[in-house]
Amino acid sequence: MPTRPRGNTALKAARQHAGYSSQQAFADALSQAAPRIGLGQMEVSVRQIRRWESDAPPWPRAEHQRLLIHVLQLPVEQLGFTPPWEADHPSAAPGVAGRQAGHAAAGPPLPQASRSVQPPAVGAEYSAITIAFRKMYASVQPAHLHPAVVEHTRLGIQLLTETSGVARRVVASALAEALLLAGRIEFFDLRQPDDADATFVRALQAAGEADDSLIGSAILVHAAFIPGWSNRRADAAERLRAARTYARRGSAPNEFLAWIDAVEAECDTRCGDANSALKMIGRAEDTLKLDGDGRSPEWFTWFSAARLAAFKGNTQLVAGRNSQARDSLNAALESLEPDENKQRAVVLSDLAAVEVTFDRYKEACKRLHEALDELATTWYATGMERVRAVRETLQPWSNTDEVEAIDDRLYGWRTMFSALQH
To answer: Region 80-94: what's the mean pLDDT?
Structure first.
């Protein structure tokens, strides 16, 4: 039985990634952008968006191309459109994810099946490899894991050309998770936000191919971190609104919904509104207390009550509620699982920051040593950023033996090599 066409998933994914959860919102954004780029008053209709997101999208007129490029910040060729002069000469290599070396950048639309040559079990087999990479993330050095995950995503894109029906959908879902993992490594572990942003677009395309709303929501939530951490609160809020829409469609469990609130709280904290963030964390805590309404998917491994306590402690620290922050962070530290080295490094760094607010520099240095021990086991760029931020606040005690010992570790041969390498 032939599979149902899914339309121009490349444009749809880019639209949703940019924060426009509906075709109407996207049409309005294009219309409003026209005067700003010298096109005068133009009205782009929802009907036009529907045509562009159809199975056979027409090549946009020149002024529409300018609008699309301006609003989505992507070339037209990466939005699912085929130039008329190339319609009879498709790309020889449509299944390569990203031409930029080293990361899974947003590329052309995901390929359609040209021949179903793989056995039905290939979807499950590809998924098993994705699951293995998911488990390795907790312990394998990100600089080593990332290239392998990227190659795995390239294989998945190739398999989309060789599968159909259920097998293709299973491959697409596993590919979406693999691309999400690649983006997580790029953003949190390697601190490459531009690469991560492009990878999340690609991941959303794969989620669209799989028609998997829940993993689509997870991708959009991760994509919100990028503007949230760079003080672009409105952009983060748009992506989170889209994520909540997909979570509703995917019948997300309470744990998943609480995580979205926690991410919004972190974005608010980064953008300087700790009070709003604390309200969101309170809502997340209330959501977690509700009776269970379904199990979280197996790939949802990055959130728990302990992680929420860590979010809360950091926000309380930023809000100046230092004693409360200490209590929340200690509770998080006690509840983390043994293999959560990365998160433990972050919590220990935040506890060190709390000690600095009480002028307890010796206790702060003790916590930083513990954080550095965790980072020596598994590198985590986000954790090292927290350590360095606390070290800046220790400057009044820079000539003490305790702080000099921290500097010896921060600027030792091995640490400096790791920092430069990552």
So the answer is: 51
